[in-house]
Amino acid sequence: MDNITIDAVKASSPTTLYFNEENNILKFSMLDYGKSPDPNFVITYGETLKNFNFKKITTDSETYFKTIDRFSEENFNTYNFANIDIQNPYKVDGISNNAVGFIFYLAIYGLPILLSVLTLIILLLIYKKFIKKK
User: Fold this and answer.
1) Taking the mean position of all CA atoms in its chain, how far away is CA 20?
2) Residue 1 falls within a domain, yes or no?
3) For the chain, first and last CA: distance in Å?
4) Are residues 123 and 106 part of one domain?
5) pTM of the entire structure?
6) Inside any domain, residue 37
7) What pLDDT digit, counting tens, does each position of 84-126 carry?
8) Minimal CB count within 10 Å: which of 15, 54, 97, 105?
């Protein structure tokens, strides 16, 4: 349909994907998908349909619904699916993220520890001065 192939898929929601090449079927598992998984699954792919006519598609919706109904009656247990890995588009990489993470952890853990150590040193110095005066 619309020449969509697994190679054209650019991204998917965070989930486990399986692909049956013979029938061009993409299956996914919603494990660890969130507190209450959204039944809508989003896949983006690289081709823009220039002559996309939404009104025509909605008028032909009955054809699509019948296709979906036939598809839902398939016995997918007889198909062989291979696990595929597609890069997560929501994952943010880069050195700047590491720097932000370092600053975050430094602020959360480093500053309180540093302030505690400085307070302890100051208290020890005051205590030593107080003992020397006696």
Assistant:
1) 23
2) no
3) 92
4) yes
5) 0.46
6) yes
7) 877 666 666 667 777 888 888 888 999 999 999 999 999 999 9
8) 54
